[in-house]
Amino acid sequence: MAELTPVGARERVVSLDVLRGLALCGVLMGNLLWLYTLRFATPHDDSSAVDTIARVGFGLVVEQKAMMLLTLLFGFGFANILVRAKERGERGTGVFVRRLAVLFVLGWCHIALVWWGDITWAYAIGGFGLLLFRRVSNIVRLVVGLVLTIVPFTVWIALDGGRIGQLFLSQADWIRHMNGLIAAAQHGDYLDTVHAHLVFALVWQAPMWIQFYPSLVGRFLLGYVAGAQRWFERDGADHLVLFRRLAIGGLAIGVPCALLTVSMPPHFDLVGMLGYELRRIPFSLLYTLQHLALAAAYVGIVVLLVQRPRWRRVLAIIAPAGRMPLTTYVLQSVFATALFYTRGLGLGLDPPGAAGCLGIALAIFAGEVAIAHVWLRYFRFGPLEWLWRSLVYMKRQPMRV
To answer: What is the pTM of this model?
Structure first.
């Protein structure tokens, strides 16, 4: 029986690395626009034409679609462990559980040492839900995945998510912890910031965990289907009809939904405690459908473009950032907090408008792509990927190329 090992260099799929890179770029743009800069909690002026265009364009093309895409890809990666283990006649549960446990610990290290908004620890918790679906058919995974992706959020809105959230955290406590985070980031020393990060990481999820984790499991299941059916083998060349349908169908559904969502004020706030509450179910359905449909469209478009040599060369430029996604993700926090926290340059005291934030995000990502190119010229994995694999497989992994 062959020993289950990490994916080797020859097994890498360019389209997946490109998709991870694009998703990470979009996540960075959203995090820098709202979270790193603390604009979600402080007044900001986006009244200029440039800022308005940037914010609306980001909302239509990137916002939440990148997170949806990244979540689907995480689900694909998680499922790949189970699929590869089954193919080799192994249970694979031990490796899978260790993978999630180590990711959970690394996520909390990220929170304590760098930034409160880490999402990987939540992905680790949601990943355990996949174990419930190991022995069911792909049809069941697909149906349950779609239901969990769409229904919990819609029901949460219908039942007034803001008030449900206050069952777990009162609005007064939310405001108190939020002000504590702002004070620590803008005026506190490092230990004050660490404490504020550890607390607010839990506070941030407290109002919405009841719909957030079922939705995570749903997205992971959709990734499970893609892994079980080998959609991305040979960069998707064996399933081009499928990816063409994803591209066309995703755009046909996603674009109208996105336009309708933007035209339906007020915007819904995921936390539900900052003054924007929307109780209209049609909005929540459009909101979720556009993210899922456009994420599917992006997958289809990238896979189709990778089949063309010229586009493959262009897209491959960002692939190294997607080859080391955990390192890329954490490095974004290092750069952003160095720019916006007081212990760095302190730009968060007077954050730029939407256009400036998105421009800074693109500049950071370009730097990360350059770093990834240089690093992977000499090493097989990113440093955090190497640490993750070594701990999961309980064996020091070879690092040099």
So the answer is: 0.92
